[in-house]
Design goal:
The structure is a single chain. The chain is an alpha/beta fold. The chain has two domains: 98 residues, Glycogen Phosphorylase B (Rossmann fold, 3-Layer(aba) Sandwich), CATH 3.40.50; 168 residues, Glycogen Phosphorylase B (Rossmann fold). It is 45% helix and 14% strand. The chain has a six-stranded parallel β-sheet, with helices on both faces. A three-stranded parallel β-sheet has the order 1-2-3, covered by helices on one side. Helix 6 runs parallel beside helix 7, helix 6 packs across helix 10 and helix 9 crosses helix 11. It is globular. The N terminus is likely disordered.
Length: 283
């Protein structure tokens, strides 16, 4: 536990009179890119009783670029319930495909996210277009680019790209899929990568943000440079060819690092430490 209790007492009052924990959920270098914004963020973070970072790398950034004292930054991973996000049985997989209207014998690539510029769904469509015709891309999500992306898919990969719109629960798509694809230009630690891994799906992703904490190249999937259309296509071929092996390792990796029960225990220890300080000060 790195939390400095005395520091927490000194810097806890940010309008509430209570200890405040800030949870960093994205890439701090991206959302605080300008000097003025970095200065404001630096001032705010230094007033926190504790700062929760998603990865060791983001912890280092918060310390080196924003001046947060090392003893007040805890690494608390993004997490999901492994009993909910689990590999489907054969019958569950077939049922999921039928529910979504997908071909039972296709090799299905899932994408989950907003249809907005930073997600670069256009890269995914272009990368999939020259792949064998049994490779089917299924996109869950909505956004301002939907019409444009649907037209692109009709032109480049007719009949092989399905837009589902918003899904109330992405689990059905993960159970229907053989792999997950992510082509964003910026990310933190996307929860969908953890959900996919726990469901036993390998991932092809652009190497942005802290994606590398979830996707271990050659072990749980593959990483490609941002905007590399040919690289995405080749990675998809390789990952689909090794999907059973990679999926088993993805599940194991995510259980070790991102299981909700494990991360919840870490949060409880952190919050109890701060509550103890608050009680001592009030006594």
């Amino acid at each position: 536990m790195r939390v400095d209790h005395a520091a927490g007492r000194r810097r806890r009052r940010v309008g509430t009179g209570r200890p405040i924990v800030y949870q960093n959920i994205g890439d701090p270098l991206f959302w605080a890119g300008s000097p003025a914004r970095r200065l404001r963020v630096r001032s705010m973070l230094r007033r926190m009783a504790a700062v929760a970072a998603l990865t060791e790398t983001s912890r280092d950034v918060l310390i080196s670029h924003f001046g947060v004292p090392p003893d007040r930054v805890e690494v608390l991973h993004n997490a999901r319930r492994s009993d909910v996000f689990r590999p489907p049985g054969p019958e569950e997989k077939v049922a999921a495909r039928r529910r979504l209207g997908l071909p039972e014998r296709a090799r299905v690539l899932a994408m989950v996210g907003a249809l907005s510029p930073e997600k670069r769904i256009d890269v995914a469509i272009t990368a999939v277009s020259p792949l064998p015709h049994d490779v089917h891309l299924v996109v869950a999500g909505d956004g301002p680019l939907r019409g444009e992306l649907e037209r692109r898919a009709t032109t480049l990969a007719p009949g092989r790209v399905t837009f589902l719109g918003q899904l109330p629960e992405p689990l059905v798509l993960l159970w229907a899929a053989d792999a997950l694809l992510l082509t964003s230009t910026t990310e933190g630690v996307p929860g969908v990568l953890i959900e996919a891994g726990l469901c036993g799906l390998p991932v092809v992703s652009t190497d942005v943000g802290y994606v590398g904490d979830v996707v271990v190249p050659g072990r749980t999937g593959l990483l490609v440079p941002e905007g590399d259309v040919a690289g995405v296509g080749q990675a998809v071929r390789e990952v689909l060819a090794g999907a059973p092996r990679l999926g088993l390792q993805a599940r194991r990796h995510c259980l070790e690092r991102f299981d909700m029960a494990r991360v919840s225990d870490q949060w409880v220890r952190l919050l109890r430490a701060l509550v103890t300080v608050e009680g001592e000060e009030s006594a």
